[in-house]
Structures are given as C-alpha cells and as structure tokens.
Amino acid sequence: MTLHRDVDPAVDPDDPARTGAVEPLETAAPAPPRSWDVATVGLPAPLAVVDLDAFDANAEDLVRRANGVPIRVASKSVRCRPLLRRALARPGFSGVMAYSVREASWLVDSGFEDVYVAYPSVDVLALSELALDGLAASQVTVTVDSLDHVRMLAALTRPHGLRVAVDVDSSLRVGPVHIGVRRSPVRSPEDAVAVARAASDAGLSVVGLMFYDAQIAGLPDTSPAVRFVKARSAASLVDRRRAVVRAVRDVADLEFVNGGGTGSVHLTALDPVVTEVAAGSGLYGPTLFDGYDAFSPRPAAAFALAVTRRPGPGFVTVSGGGYIASGPPGWERLPALFGGRDLRMVRREGAGEVQTPLQGKGARDLQIGDRAWFRHAKAGELCERFNALHLVSGTDLVETVPTYRGEGRNFG
User: Fold this and answer.
1) Which residues of 127-156 are buried (b: 16+ CB within 10 A; e: fewer)?
2) Given a cut of 70, is residue 29 above it in pLDDT?
C-alpha cells in the first residue's frame, strides 16, 4: 500500500510512471530454484508453483513473530483450500479471515471452523442464507461498522444470534492528514460502543473487534520517513485500541480482538488487548513484501511463462503475463522477473494480456519453449489467474491442487 493523504493519490512524485524512471533489471530476490524446473518438467506453461519448503518456513517465521498470539490466516492471500488447511494444521494458526460471506459459508461446508468475514457485505441473499443455516451461523462472524449495517442485518429473516464484529478505523491522523486506508467510519470508543450497542439491541451477537493497521502492515520500510510514520502510528494505535476495547467490553462479551497483518504481526502481538493477529501474504512472500526491516519472507509462490517468440536481437516474448496487482497504479504492481537473468520488461508494453516482451542480454540464452519465472506483486491474486498450484519440494512435484478459481469459485 501507499500512504493515503487527502490529496489525489495519483500524484506521486516517486512513481516511475510519472518520473520516467527505468524499472530494475531484476528483483533483489535470488534466482528461482533450478529444482522448480525439474519438478515441473513436462508441464505446460503458464504454470504456477508453491514451494512447500518456503511456505512452511514462512509459516514458522510468522508464528515466531506472533510470539504466542494466535494467527488467523487471511484466505484472500491464499485462495487455495489445501494450503489454507496446511497453514491451519500448524500450531500457532487458528481460524480463517475470509473476504466474502459466500466464501465463508463454502469454507464451513468444507469443514473449516471459526471463519471471520473481515469486510462488510451487502449480499442480502448470502446473508439471509447464513442466518438460516444453524451450522454456518455458529461458525461465521460478519463485519459491521455502521448503524446502516446493523439495520440491514436486523431486517433479515431469523437474524437473532448472527455473529458480528465491529471494524475500527486504524489509520493515523495528523491534523487534517489521513495516513492509511479508507475503511471504517468507526474511530473513537464512543463510535464503537454506539454500533455495538445497536447490534446487541437488534439481537445480533457482538463477538469481536478488528483493527487493521494498513499503513504499518502493508508498507515496506523504504525510507526514514516511512519508518517514522509507522512508529508513530503504532504508538498512537496502542492507546486508542486499548480505549476502544475497554469501552466495548462494557456492552459486549468479546471473543476476539483482531489486529495487524503480515507486515505488523511482530508489533501488534505485543499489545496485551489483542487476542489474535491476521496474516496471509507472508506465506507466499510476494514482491510487495520485499523490503521490510523486521522480516524477509522466502519467495514461495511464483509462475513460469513460456518463450514463444524471438522478435529480434536482445528480445524474447513470453505468453501471458499481464497479472497486474490491485492498488495504486505503478510498476511495483506488475509481476517481477524472478532474478537470475539480465532481463527486463519493455516499458512501452509492460506486462501484456496474452504476451509480454522482455529485453536484455539474458534474451540471448532463451530459446523457444524455455521458461521465464516471475513473482506476483501480491499474494492470493495470483490464484485468480491459475486453476491449479503445483506444490513442489526440492526436485519433487508433491501434488497439484486447485485454487478457488480451479474449483469454480469466484468471490470477487
């Protein structure tokens, strides 16, 4: 993420697209393991892999940084049921943070428990079905952050007992400057109590609070200014979070207080009022999580594209590649060549819908049918481009498992 202020977010003086800066030849990550090519030999590209050794090492590192506080795994950053189960089978992980009510109900039907939908939903049909399903309603918690949400849920058929959590804005405010993301309008203890009390009065069961500090969790430590903002934000949030939790506990029997993300697990877990932290991206280690001071996830997820053309000296073209990450536009949202070769994307074309040209001295060594490896900028969004993930360990192809997309599930 970037620092969001009350100005046009497109006006970013450091954005390469505005300054004309040239993107780097390759990522700072090491070259992809030769073992991936060996493990997936004979499989047609484009293909996506998850290195189980790196995935497990990243999971272990998250547990270490959480320092005994349970980690709720963020499904949007994984989007693969077998890998969600793999993470949850590890001590230190407990519960799922989902991003859709329909997804949550599907996961519960699949045997998952304690699923928290961390974004408000206005899918009245899905919410109505949830309220009428005793098992799902007992395992799924939905988010509210306004009286409007409460009224909508109260109007459902048999809403009594539906579990809800209040999302509390965790951005940093410095005078008129807003640093963070635009999420909940609930900020003060009074705001949170008003929503919680209204929900309880409507027959809803208020069981949780959420505090997502995007300006800490999702921002690499790229400069002293960023580090200062993150430190000030963390200190400010500790005091405000404590006050909100204390106030809401007076009107609701809270089961959980959720906070943080992959980039702030180690900080959020220090707060005694937090009962669980959230993380998911750190399992795959995408490029937007390069450059943090406190941790360095191993690149666990990557994809390979096949060379289909040699349009001229110093150039090759690979199939596909236009897997652009969400967020503010910029070169950092494009897939990154995974080291090991003197190659770069062609600025005039970038990552294309059906083909992506590459240029550089490394093109001399690539022949038709060879592969180029890439890392996605974000974690789970990669799974929206592939029906399957090939799970590898060393030179072994351990298993091929479906993504959400491969199971015919699209939750937006």
Assistant:
1) bbbbbeeeebbebbbbbbbbeebbebbbeb
2) no
Of 15-19, 114-118, 250-254, 287-291, give the lowest mean pLDDT range: 15-19
Domains observed in the chain: 22-50+296-407 (2.40.37.20), 53-283 (3.20.20.10)
Classify residue 329 by its DSSP letter.
-
Q: What are phi and psi of 255, to 5 degrees?
A: -95, -30
Cβ density class 212-221: b for 16+ within 10 Å, e for less: bbbbbbbbbe
The CA R_g of the chain, rounded to the nearest whole Å, is 22
| Three-point CA angle 60, 287, 321, nearest 5° | 125
Distance CA 163, CA 133 (A): 13
Contact 97, 75 (CB under 8 A): yes
Q: What is the pLDDT of residues 287-312, one digit of tens each?
A: 988 988 888 899 999 999 999 999 99
Within 10 Å of residue 43's Cβ, how many Cβ atoms?
14
